[in-house]
Amino acid sequence: xxxxxxxxxxxxxxxxxxxxxxxxxxxxxxxxxxxxxxxxxxxxxxxxxxxxxxxxxxxxxxxxxxxxxxxxxxxxxxxxxxxxxxxxxxxxxxxxxxxxxxxxxxxxxxxxxxxxxxxxxxxxxxxxxxxxxxxxxxxxxxxxxxxxxxxxxxxxxxxxxxxxxxxxxxxxx
Length: 173
Description:
Helix content: 55-70%
Distance between the termini: 46 Å
Strand order of the largest sheet: 1-3-2
Order of helices and strands: HEHHEEHHHH
Largest sheet: 3 strands, antiparallel
Number of strands: 3
Oligomer: single chain
């Protein structure tokens, strides 16, 4: 994940402190894993070191000290370049689901039972995503649609895997 570039994007509309950056990320991607505070502050420190952001204020306003960061011209240029560059499609990477299915088969465990449970889990997650009430935040819906469509592709793969395993069982009888 391009955490540094997302942080730059979150700072695009104006200076913010780490808490605001974290909260902004979690609002942009409400159905994804939240960004950890440690990751936010580590990323901000690295961006400052690379002169992509700068500290514009340090204050406490009666609470804990907060460091406010803003994009530099170099940071704006880096963000613009990142946004303009297409993503390389995955080149045959294998995710945890595939690894677990292969390991289940190779260790002699019941892959059909695992695949069936996994299929139910995927269906449950798709229902959860579709049950969220619509709001005016279209980027949030784009994220939900992306997740749901990937889960749907996984479901098609799970069904294919179940079919192949059933065929293999028929052949070996």
